[in-house]
């Protein structure tokens, strides 16, 4: 199981694998799983602290791929897989009982040095600018823009009202534009404090 998303020529391989999965090829599904499960698990684990839920969501994701590989339109397979996984995570959270302990938010973890480097590699200046906005705003942007969730899905995933998601998204976009403008005007390119 690879931890990072494949690059370059693997995109064509993914499309071929998905065509084979659509035809009922279980070995193609296994190859797709081996290629993508690692990074999907890592991203899901960042969104959900319960490893059992993450494993269940990962399994549900690939079951959905098995059933609907024929609906893949030939774009980036990684993005398609992530949208499926993110929506399965929302579904799993909806199914969880709403007890006071389930509503309590876990303490926010400080990003590791590796996460900062990976964010810079994955998102370049946008990743640096994202690091400069507040965590609440950053999570809303990641849920709605990066993960492609609807406002309702993001609200459920983050445990906040839909109106709050919309407000935070608007503020996040404004602050992100300001942070990108600061970087473009000669601000520090590797992140850090302003």
UniProtKB/TrEMBL annotation:
<comment type="similarity">
    <text>Belongs to the sigma-70 factor family. ECF subfamily.</text>
</comment>
<dbReference type="GO" id="GO:0003677">
    <property type="term" value="F:DNA binding"/>
</dbReference>
<feature type="domain" description="RNA polymerase sigma factor 70 region 4 type 2">
    <location>
        <begin position="126"/>
        <end position="176"/>
    </location>
</feature>
<dbReference type="GO" id="GO:0016987">
    <property type="term" value="F:sigma factor activity"/>
</dbReference>
<dbReference type="InterPro" id="IPR013325">
    <property type="entry name" value="RNA_pol_sigma_r2"/>
</dbReference>
<protein>
    <submittedName>
        <fullName>RNA polymerase sigma-70 factor</fullName>
    </submittedName>
</protein>
<dbReference type="InterPro" id="IPR014284">
    <property type="entry name" value="RNA_pol_sigma-70_dom"/>
</dbReference>
<dbReference type="InterPro" id="IPR036388">
    <property type="entry name" value="WH-like_DNA-bd_sf"/>
</dbReference>
<dbReference type="InterPro" id="IPR013324">
    <property type="entry name" value="RNA_pol_sigma_r3/r4-like"/>
</dbReference>
<dbReference type="InterPro" id="IPR013249">
    <property type="entry name" value="RNA_pol_sigma70_r4_t2"/>
</dbReference>
<dbReference type="Pfam" id="PF04542">
    <property type="entry name" value="Sigma70_r2"/>
</dbReference>
<dbReference type="InterPro" id="IPR007627">
    <property type="entry name" value="RNA_pol_sigma70_r2"/>
</dbReference>
<dbReference type="InterPro" id="IPR039425">
    <property type="entry name" value="RNA_pol_sigma-70-like"/>
</dbReference>
<keyword id="KW-0731">Sigma factor</keyword>
<dbReference type="Pfam" id="PF08281">
    <property type="entry name" value="Sigma70_r4_2"/>
</dbReference>
<dbReference type="GO" id="GO:0006352">
    <property type="term" value="P:DNA-templated transcription initiation"/>
</dbReference>
<keyword id="KW-0805">Transcription regulation</keyword>
<feature type="domain" description="RNA polymerase sigma-70 region 2">
    <location>
        <begin position="32"/>
        <end position="98"/>
    </location>
</feature>
<keyword id="KW-0804">Transcription</keyword>
């Amino acid at each position: 199981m690879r931890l990072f998303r494949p690059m370059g020529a693997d995109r064509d391989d993914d499309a071929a694998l998905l065509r084979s999965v659509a035809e009922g090829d279980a070995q193609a599904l296994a190859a797709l799983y081996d290629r993508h499960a690692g990074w999907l698990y890592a991203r899901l684990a960042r969104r959900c602290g319960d490893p059992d839920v993450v494993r269940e969501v990962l399994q549900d994701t690939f079951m959905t791929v098995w059933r609907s590989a024929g609906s893949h339109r030939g774009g980036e397979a990684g993005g398609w897989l992530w949208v499926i996984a993110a929506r399965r995570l929302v579904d799993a959270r909806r199914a969880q009982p709403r007890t006071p302990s389930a509503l309590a938010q876990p303490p926010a973890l400080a990003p590791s040095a590796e996460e900062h480097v990976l964010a810079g590699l994955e998102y370049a200046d946008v990743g640096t600018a994202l690091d400069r906005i507040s965590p609440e705003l950053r999570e809303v942007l990641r849920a709605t823009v990066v993960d492609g969730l609807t406002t309702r899905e993001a609200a459920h995933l983050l445990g906040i009202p839909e109106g709050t998601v919309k407000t935070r998204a608007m503020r996040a976009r404004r602050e992100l534009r300001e942070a990108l403008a600061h970087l473009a005007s000669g601000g520090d390119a590797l992140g850090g404090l302003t």
